[in-house]
Amino acid sequence: MEHFTIQPVSAENWEEAINISVFEEQQCFVPSVTQSLAYAYIKPWDEALDPFVLTLHDRIIGFFYVSYTPNSSDNYWIGGLQIDAKYQQKGYGKKAMAEIIQFLKESHPSYNLISLTVEKENLIAQRLYQGLGFISENHLNQDGEIIYRIKLS
Fold first, then answer.
1. Alpha carbons 135 and 147: distance in angstroms, whole number
2. Range 13-39 burial, b when 16+ CB lie within 10 A, else e
């Protein structure tokens, strides 16, 4: 089984990270890595926003960020998840998301709820998250995106 590593975006990898791109028809569903790095600097939603890259065999293949309130148990949001177009359609999205959940369990042991949002038109992502146990509470955020949550034991 292939194992992803998760690393913070850093001075050593940011230039490779900003070259990640999804297929053109997916660009409306996810912020660019550059936009997400701006979010990390500005922190528009929470007290903390940490950007990460996903690597496989020492190659950066994806990106995501975690927006959260430190020491909270229920304010952890995964955002900006994207797998570079060259690496899509290989099952990496599902495997990466499982790794991200495990990573958060280890790095933020106080949390018990993860949230994320999905565009209403992004049916592929909705199926991915539902398959991992995320549940839609049929709530939309201020941007009209569906909120999904998963409770952890």
1. 8
2. ebeebeebebeeebeeebbbbeebbeb
Neighbours of 111 (CB within 10 A): 19
Enter the pTM of the model: 0.92
Report domain extents, the chain. 5-151
* 45-80 pLDDT tens trace: 878 999 999 999 889 999 999 999 988 888 899 999
Residues near 43 by Cβ (< 8 Å), separated by ≥ 6?
49, 67
Contacts of 33 (CB under 8 A, 6+ apart): 17, 18, 20, 51, 63, 80, 82
| pLDDT for the residue numbered 71 | 85
**100/7 Cα distance (integer angstroms):** 11
Q: Which tokens in the block code for residue 98?
A: 């499982």
Buried-exposed string 62-86: b where 16+ CB fall within 10 A, e elsewhere? bbbbbbbeeebeebbbbbbbbbbee
Joined tokens for residue 106: 């280890």
Q: Which residues of the chain have pLDDT under 50?
A: none
Q: What pLDDT does 1 receive?
A: 59
- CATH code of 5-151, in short, is 3.40.630.30
